């Protein structure tokens, strides 16, 4: 394999990396210029040929998504940039926005040319205040330089970007929840179909793409789809539905490691390589007990599964839900999975939007059962109840509208199956690990 | 006497041209009002609804969904300090940090200190996991913080 050269994070350590001047000095907006010289369909085909799969969690091919828009639609067509990055353990979009905002803006402009949109809404989670200020300044620079607004780069291409701030709700990262929230409503995901490409924001055809996905588009235009496909993992010949896991990927590593951070690597690196070679190993000389492969909704890898390649197929083969956001969280061998799972369930219960009963009730009951276990009142049959509740909620069993529920169920299923001993030992010992901090929070809003 | 000043109204109106539909200005308007007044009262909701030409109940419905905007029974203090409690921070002392600040400032999560200087909150993942434990002060993130760091950042002992 040829040596890997990072592109997405190539500029972040440079001085003034967020400024238009330095971005252009590094060849910035050449990809947009190239795209504007091509018919929109050719740009879409280029992205389609690269088999760029969405980086936000679902891994749907971005170019293919663009082709779902109705042909010859009179408009408007909208692009929504999903910058509601909220999956626990995930922070790569924040780094991209804070340190290289023009890479993203260029990707947005290329995508808008491809899908014939003149308006992009960037839905930014509220907590990313610094990203907001950096992007706001970068967008203003673009208007002043003729890179946004009317007749961009002297071509017949107009584009406005609107920065829209959320209000601290995980569900707004679900694409139709995002659309509802943008429209000024509660962020209740919509029943699909119709998919947003047919009827999305303000009932118009809409494409929702993640920040990292759009940053990849910039480089695909610069370097071509063959370059993109020279990185990562080709399709599994034994799986006719696999499209491969191509391109560079930003992996976030956090939790019990010596050097938490975000690294850009070819898709397919193993969890073990990430921990040992890119995060300085597990902290305090300990061993990993469990590793979250891609945000908590993907579940857990056990210590025996650390050689799992983190491409779009690997985590699934190890019983996880998928690659998710490629956010790796390491749990050391001194930590009880009871406490870790409680943290995951409490998050999902807090963030369930409440629209579908199995999710609203299921996430709450799983949290309550774990609270009871952690208060020293657990029973062995609680473990079967947890598994049963987890098995009844989500898109996979067909009981909910969106995937939040599957993401709430998966860590429970994985934890009870792969770490049952931790739970049994905990219950049998009558231990109690509710901390006073958690008691404080239990009474809070 | 209206609750929303002319300056606030101007800022809300400035959002209108960005969207094809005024209802979409609900969140921007709520943020503008909430930042300024540290709460969103029923009167403020009524005045926003007049500007947006939608029913006040629609604004309240959206607002109450987010669990972010404070109503008059619990106005925000001068600074809002969010302490992350999600997995990466929990594994590196986030919950203990929240507890220590809570005891030190005599304020529970979700409450405001009696001098009105600080509102303390727990947060779900702030997206700064490489710097766990992390906090958000208003909307500025600080990473790898100790109790002393927070006191220095917020200017409260």
TrEMBL record, chain A:
Keyword Protein biosynthesis: no
Record EC number: 1.6.5.11
Keywords, comma-separated and alphabetical: 4Fe-4S, Iron, Iron-sulfur, Metal-binding, Oxidoreductase
Gene3D superfamilies according to UniProt: 3.10.20.600, 6.10.250.1450, NADH-ubiquinone oxidoreductase 51kDa subunit, NADH-ubiquinone oxidoreductase 51kDa subunit, iron-sulphur binding domain
Pfam families: Complex1_51K, NADH_4Fe-4S, SLBB_2
Any GO molecular function: 4 iron, 4 sulfur cluster binding
Keyword S-adenosyl-L-methionine: no
UniProt-listed InterPro entries: NADH-UbQ_OxRdtase_51kDa_CS, Nuo51_FMN-bd, Nuo51_FMN-bd_sf, Nuop51_4Fe4S-bd, Nuop51_4Fe4S-bd_sf, SLBB_dom
Domain called NADH-ubiquinone oxidoreductase 51kDa subunit iron-sulphur binding: residue spans: 338-383
SUPFAM superfamilies named among the record's database cross-references: Nqo1 FMN-binding domain-like, Nqo1 middle domain-like, Nqo1C-terminal domain-like
Family, as annotated: Belongs to the complex I 51 kDa subunit family.
Name by which UniProt lists this protein: NADH-quinone oxidoreductase subunit 1
Organism of origin: Lacipirellula limnantheis
Gene: nqo1
Automatic annotation (TrEMBL), chain B:
Superkingdom to which the source organism belongs: Bacteria
Protein name: NADH-quinone oxidoreductase subunit 2
Sample GO molecular function, one term: NADH dehydrogenase activity
Residues where [2Fe-2S] cluster binds: 84, 89, 125, 129
SUPFAM superfamilies per the UniProt record, alphabetical: Thioredoxin-like
PROSITE patterns registered for this protein in UniProt: COMPLEX1_24K
Known cofactor(s): [2Fe-2S] cluster
Gene: nqo2
Organism for this UniProt entry: Lacipirellula limnantheis
Keyword Iron-sulfur assigned: yes
Stated family: Belongs to the complex I 24 kDa subunit family.
Enzyme Commission code: 1.6.5.11
Cofactor binding notes: Binds 1 [2Fe-2S] cluster.
UniProt keyword annotations, A-Z: 2Fe-2S, Iron, Iron-sulfur, Metal-binding, Oxidoreductase
């Amino acid at each position: 394999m040829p040596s890997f050269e990072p592109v997405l994070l190539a500029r972040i350590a440079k001085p003034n990396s967020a400024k238009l001047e330095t971005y252009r000095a590094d060849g910035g907006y050449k990809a947009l210029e190239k795209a504007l010289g091509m018919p929109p369909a050719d740009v879409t085909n280029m992205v389609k040929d690269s088999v760029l799969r969405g980086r936000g969690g679902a891994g749907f091919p971005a170019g293919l998504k663009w082709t779902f828009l109705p042909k010859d639609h009179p408009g408007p067509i909208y692009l929504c940039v999903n910058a509601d990055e909220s999956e626990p353990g995930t922070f790569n979009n924040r780094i991209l926005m804070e340190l290289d905002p023009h890479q993203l803006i260029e990707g947005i402009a290329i995508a808008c040319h491809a899908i014939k949109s003149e308006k992009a809404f960037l839905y930014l989670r509220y907590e990313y205040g610094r990203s907001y200020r950096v992007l706001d300044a970068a967008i203003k620079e673009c208007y002043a330089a003729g890179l946004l607004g009317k007749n961009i780069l002297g071509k017949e291409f107009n584009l406005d970007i609107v920065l829209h701030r959320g209000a601290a709700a995980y569900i707004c990262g679900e694409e139709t929840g995002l659309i509802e929230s943008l429209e000024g409503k509660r962020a209740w995901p919509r029943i699909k179909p119709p998919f947003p490409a047919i009827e999305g924001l303000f009932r118009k055809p809409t494409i929702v793409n993640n920040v990292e996905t759009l940053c990849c588009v910039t480089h695909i235009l610069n370097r071509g789809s063959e370059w993109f496909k020279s990185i990562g993992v080709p399709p599994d010949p034994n799986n006719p539905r696999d499209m491969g896991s191509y391109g560079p990927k930003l992996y976030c590593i956090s939790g019990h490691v010596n050097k938490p951070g975000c690294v850009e690597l070819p898709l397919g690196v193993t969890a073990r390589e990430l921990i040992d070679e890119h995060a300085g190993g597990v902290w305090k000389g300990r061993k990993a007990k469990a590793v979250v492969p891609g945000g908590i909704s993907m579940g857990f890898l056990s210590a025996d599964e650390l050689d799992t390649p983190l491409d779009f197929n690997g985590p699934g083969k190890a019983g996880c839900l998928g690659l998710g956001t490629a956010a790796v969280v390491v749990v050391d061998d001194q930590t009880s999975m009871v406490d870790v799972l409680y943290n995951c369930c409490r998050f999902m219960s807090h963030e369930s939007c409440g629209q579908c009963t199995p999710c609203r009730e299921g996430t709450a009951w799983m949290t309550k059962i774990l609270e009871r276990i952690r208060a020293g009142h657990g029973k062995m049959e609680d473990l079967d109840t947890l598994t049963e509740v987890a098995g009844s909620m989500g898109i996979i069993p067909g009981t909910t509208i969106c995937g939040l529920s599957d993401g709430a169920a998966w860590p429970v299923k994985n934890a009870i199956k792969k770490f049952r001993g931790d739970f049994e030992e905990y219950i049998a010992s009558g231990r109690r690990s509710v901390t006073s901090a958690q008691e404080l929070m239990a009474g809070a809003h | 006497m209206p609750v929303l000043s002319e300056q606030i109204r101007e800022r809300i109106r400035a959002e209108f041209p960005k969207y094809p539909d005024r209802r979409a200005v609900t969140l921007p308007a709520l943020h503008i009002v909430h930042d300024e007044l540290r709460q969103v009262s029923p009167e403020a909701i009524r005045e926003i609804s007049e500007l947006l030409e939608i029913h006040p109940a629609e604004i309240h419905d959206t607002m109450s969904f987010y669990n972010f905007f404070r109503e008059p029974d619990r106005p925000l203090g001068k600074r809002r300090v969010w302490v992350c409690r999600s997995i990466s921070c929990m594994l590196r002392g986030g919950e203990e940090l929240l507890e220590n600040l809570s005891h030190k400032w005599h304020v529970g999560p979700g409450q405001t200190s009696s001098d009105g200087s600080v509102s303390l909150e727990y947060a779900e993942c702030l997206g700064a996991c490489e710097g766990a434990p992390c906090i958000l002060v208003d909307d500025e993130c600080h990473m790898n913080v100790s109790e002393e760091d927070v006191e220095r950042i917020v200017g409260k002992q």
